[in-house]
Structure formats: C-alpha cells, structure tokens
Automatic annotation (TrEMBL):
The keyword Transmembrane helix applies. Residues 30-160 form the VTT domain. Its main location: membrane. It holds the Pfam family VTT_dom. The chain crosses the membrane at residues 12-30, 50-71, 140-160, 172-190. Keywords: Cell membrane, Membrane, Transmembrane, Transmembrane helix. The keyword Membrane applies. This is DedA family protein. It is a multi-pass membrane protein.
Length: 202
C-alpha cells in the first residue's frame, strides 16, 4: 500500500493528497500515517508547498468524515436503533447500548469528537454518534477541523522535518495504528460471539 500511496501523491500532488485523505476517512484501512508524512517529505523537497499540503490534507479529511456524519444525521437515532435491533448479532448493538452511547455523547460530545479525531480507526467512527446526536453541523466541523489540524499537522511536520527519513514515522506510527484497528476488530468479534438479545422485538 505504501508504494501505491507514494505513487498517487507523486503523480497527482495536492489533488492526490486530498483524494487519499477523503478515502482514509471513508475507508479507515487507508492510513493517514503514510499519506501525510510522505506529503510533508515532498514539500521538503520543494515540489509542493507545505501550507498547500496541510490544506489539502485537512480538506480531504473533513470531507471524508463529514460523509459519515451526514449519513448518521439523515438516519437519526430512531431509525438507527430500529436497524440495529433487526440486524441483531451482526450489529452487536442492543437498544440499551445505543441509549447509553447517545446520552454519553450528549454529555461529552465536543470532547469526544476532538479526542476521537486524534485516534486511529476512531477518527472515522466518531462521526457516527455525532450525526446521530444531531450535533450542530458547524460545531461538528469546527471541532473536527481543530482535531484534524493537530493530527495532519504532526504527521506532515514529521515528514517535512525528517526529509528523506520520513519513513521513520511509518516505522513507529503505522504499527500503533494497525494495533488499534486490530483491537477494534477483535472487540467486534468478541461482541458478535457473545451477543444475546435483550428482548423480543417482534
């Protein structure tokens, strides 16, 4: 995947960074931990502008994460609960789980979005409860933009400062990101295997 991302950014520049970051937020296995450090490296070589790289990365990230927010916002908590009830074991969510998550997010929503944007895998998923809780769109975008600026800024700066050694960033960040994704998958499998219906929904 590294070679594909590097080649795509090399060929398409700012547009390539933007599109990669959109996909990274819609399809989490595409890692920003590879996209932005290499983009920072390219900027250090003088082929791209550092500010332009940051803007392209942030814009793509916000557009990608907004897609999940809009989908969840349009579905709403009632239809989401109805769908999860009928998907049962596949969803691994009960109505009780959804109620608890909804009230927790209603209390800590802003902080959850800000911190969530800094955690691999969670960066995408946090948009769903934000949409379900009907967080005001401008508030969601503002908080997401702040978290995105911090995350993409760190990765881009690392690639820029390390220059040709940008791959060092991949050597320690990518395994951590992979570990988080594996943990999320294992948690889902555990919930899938241990799921029991609370009540008969008819």
């Amino acid at each position: 995947m590294s070679d594909f991302i590097i080649g795509f950014i090399t060929d398409w520049g700012y547009l390539g960074i933007f599109l990669m970051m959109v996909l990274e937020n819609i399809f989490p296995p595409i890692p920003s931990e590879l996209i932005m450090p290499f983009a920072g490296y390219v900027a250090a070589q003088g082929d791209l502008n550092l500010v332009g790289v940051l803007i392209a990365g942030m814009a793509g990230s916000l557009l990608g994460t907004s897609a999940w927010y809009v989908a969840a916002r349009l579905m709403g908590i009632e239809r989401f609960t109805w769908l999860c009830n009928r998907l049962g074991r596949i969803a691994t969510l009960s109505e009780h789980d959804i109620d608890m998550a909804y009230h927790w997010f209603a209390r800590y929503g802003a902080l959850a979005v800000l911190v969530g944007r800094l955690i691999p895998a969670i960066r995408t998923l946090i948009s769903v409860p934000a949409g379900l809780a009907a967080m005001p769109v401008w508030r969601f975008l503002g908080i997401s933009a702040l978290g995105t600026l911090v995350w993409t800024g760190i990765l881009t700066a690392a690639g820029y400062v390390l220059d040709a050694g940008y791959h060092v960033v991949e050597a320690w960040i990518d395994p951590v990101s992979t570990g988080v994704v594996i943990l999320v998958v294992l948690l889902y499998i555990w919930r899938f295997l241990t799921w029991k219906p609370i009540k008969d929904i008819g």
